[in-house]
Amino acid sequence: MPDAEAKPAGTSELGEAKSPPPHRLLPRLARDPHQTLIDLGNQAGGALLRLDLGLFRPYLVTHPAHVQHIMRDNVGNYTRDGNSMLWRSVRRAAGDGILSEGPGWVTSRRIMQPLFTPKRIDPLIEEMASAVSDAVDELDEAARTGQPIDIAAELSRIVCHAVTRVFFADKISVPDALRLVSAQDTLVTSAKSRFLVPFMPDFVPMPGDRAFRDALHTIDELLLPVVREARRRPSDSDDVVATLGRARTEDGHELDEQRMRDDVVAMFAVTTETTYAVLTWLWPILDQHPEIADRLYDEIETVVGAAPVDRSHLPELRYTRMVLDELLRMFPPGWLLPRRVMAADVLGGVPLKPGATVILSPYVTQRMAAFWDRPEVFDPERFAPDQPKRAHRYSYYPFGGGPHQCIGAHLFSLEAQIIVATLLSRFRFRLRAPGIPVPKVAASLRVRDRVEMTLLPVKRPAAA
Ligand code: HEM
Fold this sequence. Notes:
Keywords: Heme, Iron, Metal-binding, Monooxygenase, Oxidoreductase. By secondary structure, the protein is of the alpha+beta class.
């Protein structure tokens, strides 16, 4: 693997970041933003780049050492400012809580983080596996009749079954959860123009605004009653809503309705959206790599077989975990993580002014030839336990890092193993249109078009 440390993290001399000419950059970004950013990252080899998008001129940060500086070493200087790219839309949807910055974030992180530690999550494995299994049962009919399914829709249904039961104590019904997921989908997609033109004031109408507002309205309609009920009848349950209901701010006050609503909205989104988004990429990848698929099937057959997935299986699903780690390398849902520069700083020899935007991208760094061998090849062996340690912690950061590091990484790992093992212990699949899907231009990394497939029940010799 290329040695990230050996690449210059910057130079001791100060200088402006290179900036690709806008007349070439803009058409390329409009055509294929994902590949263009990877190409730019590769051309710059880890140096900071300035993207000249007219009135908006953010820096693209790809070197792991620079990522570490922003996410960890000098984190106080790089904020998820609620007026900046991406975070402005996030703030409109999820307010000043866990997905924000400052005192509201401190309180929410203190309240939410303990719910997702391995100690709290591991005892929930059986319940999660049983919810997943119940949801997967509903695919038997499609497998029997050969009816094609939209795997993203099915995965979101499976995830909603698990999440509503385990983390929301069935306070949100599965049909409501699916309406929420669909509204979230609209938020992520309709925020695109505000994302790309973050300096436009709110009073100037932009495409997608109406859809965004309608989706927020749906979310409030579904979640506010849940919040109000929890406030009316506090309980000692340890689901997300009841936990927020009992929580206190740093100065001892209970959270008001708006603050509770903000964190319920945020927590529902992060527990659903990311997991199904990343697992949707798995099937086209397996279809393209039959040798990887066979090894995965063999492991699941040996470890799980025809039995329901249970806690004892998970430590044995080593190859499954390697496949998931590689999936997160190539398709991290949080593909762009912008920050606002607070005070002047120097990064990689480039002076940064207060107010500038820096864009970090796990998607780009994790596909750069400077930091990965054959970055465009899907190869789970990179994550084999006997592989040498990666040269730099931040050459792979699908879950971010530093104080804002994802609190759901352990949950994702368990939940994704359970879902993949449950599905593949029962079905094989055939894609209707083979090929790796094109990513959608949206705030998170999703497939642009449906991934449709037919399911084939796994045949096993009848027991003697
Ligand atoms: C594939 C699965 C997931 C990926 C790749 C992922 C990725 C990320 C990333 C990159 C961040 C950092 C954002 C930033 O630095 O601005 C983050 C934050 C967060 N994630 Fe995840 N996430 C995943 C699943 C989950 C799940 C299942 C949960 C459920 C608890 C979750 C909860 C959160 C929360 C609450 C934050 C905000 C943390 C903070 O700012 O203090 N995530 N996630």
